[in-house]
Write a structure and sequence with these properties.
The chain is α+β, with helices and mostly antiparallel strands. The chain is built from 23 helices and 22 strands. The longest helix has 21 residues.
């Protein structure tokens, strides 16, 4: 298993220097501001497979005061249709049907202006189930202002040579569908000019939005304004949480009001909130929202066309109308409140993903937790469980999610033996496991370490290095950590070898010695230990303890990357991005960064954002850049937050 150290070091001073330089370049590369937004809007968006958010676009008001070239053109309606169409093409939104929207607007007496009042916006949002409403006005529509030129006769036509400049402006307002407040506004502009020979009067009779229209300067300016608006909306919606509602509860199943139409996937966790009484402002009469209480998580098990079914783990019950949010886990304190009291503990680390390092779970078990690591001499290991086992039931209770595993195991008294069903090598096997007490675990580890168990020795080294058990009589003590890592390493335990190499490399609890570090890293790497391979590659990359050799570094990074280790994937991406030891290849760099990013590796998420930000190996796309920056920033990646701050300061995003 991985030592865990490399994950920390990638964003720290040892491995963070090159990454930091790249990100600062991204933040200062001059891609911010109006021109950058226009360039981003004109790029072809990459395929989007994330959850779609529900968006309603109200009809844009026509506030143009200059003469319109063709009186048949309905600017408000025409630009609204173009905006809806382009938003739909991004694949990011479920667009409310225009016919349904028009009827609701009429019912709410919003008239035909496209304006929306605070006291009705929330009603419209609730009826439509939209996360955000988009409204606004067409403010500028200048078909042409001519520069120099002249005219010549040709048969029955007057042919002119001239420079035409067209300008279109649309004020976009984004309205919170809960409160009716305008949360962000933006003036989306588009300009186009053309110096050409053209037939006089060519605009008249051309249908608004037609191919012929879009080939003219005014059509090009219109398209650019709409693309600018779409880029703005897409970026702003990244900060809006995806939400759904409980549609019903039946036989222990939670029905969710969104499904395949929203790009939902099985095994997705949704944070569940029980909604209380609506809070109304006594002065304005406007809704201020509902009281909400975190009660647990819903894990999606079945995805249907327009709804999904899931299981609930937590405290209390859910009811129709309760709120579900994706991507916003509660605080540790809130989470602890919904978990049952008790000290039951299995001593395992699990993942809920449908796939782990390229290994797909079998059908029907995609969401059940898979063991990826076990505590040495812990209850699960003593009971016969193994890494790779998929837990299906504990004490005859189905375990459909990781949270359910915690909920069920904690409620079992320590010392009680219960049947644990797992799926292993194509069949279901049951093991009797005596539930443990995590408070007593440090004592068990020390006893096993003193008896010569290398895994326990390595675990005791971790505890002394980090101080994580200081309240259990195991103080932070780096020389003591070195002692226990050495005992494990000398028995050939690869994880212990990697950790001992690290202590020598960084001079922790021992005199810094690259040669000694290199010796232990190589021993671990040659056993196939992924983190050991990455550390060995890092030594070659930087010439620590041996001659610098980028090609050899790439070799070891690739070995770890091909095992699915995110640290190795990240470093291999860096080598391709910088052209070190391989031909520089941004496309290949992005491929490896993305593999690590999709495993939740923060530095890689930052760099995926950087590549979209700068258009390296992919069409430049600010919405995608912001999406990945936000994922990384949520994990505390400072470079990602700095990039977001730069975009915010430039007015490209607001939140």
């Amino acid at each position: 298993m991985s030592s865990g150290r490399f994950l920390r070091a990638t964003s720290g001073p040892v491995l963070g220097a090159a990454l930091g330089a790249m990100l600062l370049l991204a933040a200062c590369a001059g891609h911010l501001g109006g021109q950058a937004m226009s360039a981003a809007a004109q790029s072809t968006p990459p395929p989007f497979d994330g959850p779609k958010k529900r968006l309603a676009v109200l009809r844009l008001e026509n506030k143009v005061r200059t003469p319109i070239p063709d009186k048949s053109w309905q600017l408000g309606e025409g630009l609204t249709e173009m905006l809806v169409s382009e938003l739909f093409k991004t694949g990011r939104f479920i667009m409310v049907e225009r016919a349904a929207l028009a009827e609701i607007v009429k019912e709410q007496e919003l008239g035909q202006t496209g304006l929306i009042r605070k006291d009705t916006a929330a009603k419209v949002g609730a009826i439509l189930g939209a996360e955000m409403l988009v409204t606004g006005a067409v403010t500028e529509f200048e078909a042409e202002s001519s520069g120099g030129g002249g005219a010549i006769g040709y048969q029955a036509f007057a042919i002119q040579t001239q420079t035409k400049t067209a300008h279109v402006g649309v004020d976009i307002r984004m309205v919170d569908a809960t409160t009716g407040e305008i949360v962000r506004s933006h003036n989306a502009e588009g300009k186009a000019e053309e110096t050409a020979v053209a037939f006089a009067g060519q605009i008249k009779g051309v249908t608004f939005g037609s191919d012929a229209f879009l080939k003219m300067p005014i059509g090009q300016a219109t398209r650019r304004a709409i693309q600018n608006a779409v880029a703005f909306i897409a970026q702003e919606m990244e900060a809006v949480p995806w939400t759904a509602r409980v549609a019903g509860v039946k036989d222990g199943q939670i029905y969710v009001n969104q499904g395949a139409n929203a790009n939902l996937e099985t095994c997705t966790n949704l944070t569940a909130y029980s909604l209380g009484e609506e809070v109304i402002d006594p002065r304005s009469g406007l809704s201020l929202g509902n009281e909400r209480t975190y009660v647990g998580m819903v894990t999606l098990q079945e995805i249907h066309d327009k709804f999904s079914k899931g299981t609930f783990a937590g405290w209390g019950t859910l009811k129709r109308g309760d709120l579900l949010i994706m991507g916003q886990p509660p605080s540790a304190a809130a989470h602890a409140r919904v978990m049952p009291s008790g000290d039951g503990w299995l001593g395992i680390e699990v993942i809920q993903a449908r796939e782990y390092r390229g290994i797909k779970k079998p059908g029907g078990l995609e969401c059940h937790p898979m063991i990826v690591r076990m505590a040495p001499v812990g209850p699960a290991e003593k009971g016969g469980l193994k890494q790779g086992d998929i837990i299906t039931a504990i004490n005859e209770t189905e375990i459909p999610s990781s949270l359910a595993l915690v909920q069920v195991s904690r409620a079992i008294p320590p010392g009680k033996s219960v049947p644990v069903k797992v799926f292993r090598e194509g069949k279901t096997v049951t093991f009797p496991v005596a539930i443990g007490d995590q408070r007593a675990y440090p004592k068990l580890v020390r006893e096993a370490a003193e008896q010569g168990d290398p895994r326990a020795q390595d675990a005791l080294g971790d505890a002394h290095r980090t101080g994580s058990w200081k309240d259990k009589g195991v103080p932070r003590n780096e020389p003591e950590a070195v002692k226990w890592y050495r005992k494990a390493a000398e028995q050939g335990y690869a994880r212990g070898q990697t950790n001992l190499g690290w202590m020598y490399s960084d001079g922790l609890g021992v005199q810094q010695d690259y040669t000694e570090a290199l010796k232990w890293y190589r021993k671990a790497a040659e056993q196939g230990h992924d983190a050991g391979q990455v550390h060995l590659g890092f030594m070659y990359e930087n010439g620590h303890g041996l001659s610098q050799d980028h090609a050899e570094a790439v070799k070891w990074y690739r070995k770890a990357a091909e095992q699915g280790y995110p640290g190795g994937q990240f470093k291999l991406g860096t080598m391709y991005g910088d052209g070190l030891g391989v031909q520089q290849d941004y496309t290949e760099a992005l491929k490896w960064y993305r593999k690590a990013a999709e495993q939740g590796f923060g530095p890689a998420q930052t760099n995926v954002g950087v590549f979209y930000h700068n258009g390296w190996g992919v069409a430049r796309n600010y919405a995608e850049a912001v999406r990945w920056y936000r994922k990384a920033a949520a994990q505390g990646e400072k470079a990602a937050q700095q990039n977001l701050d730069s975009l915010r300061a430039a007015g490209v995003i607001s939140r």
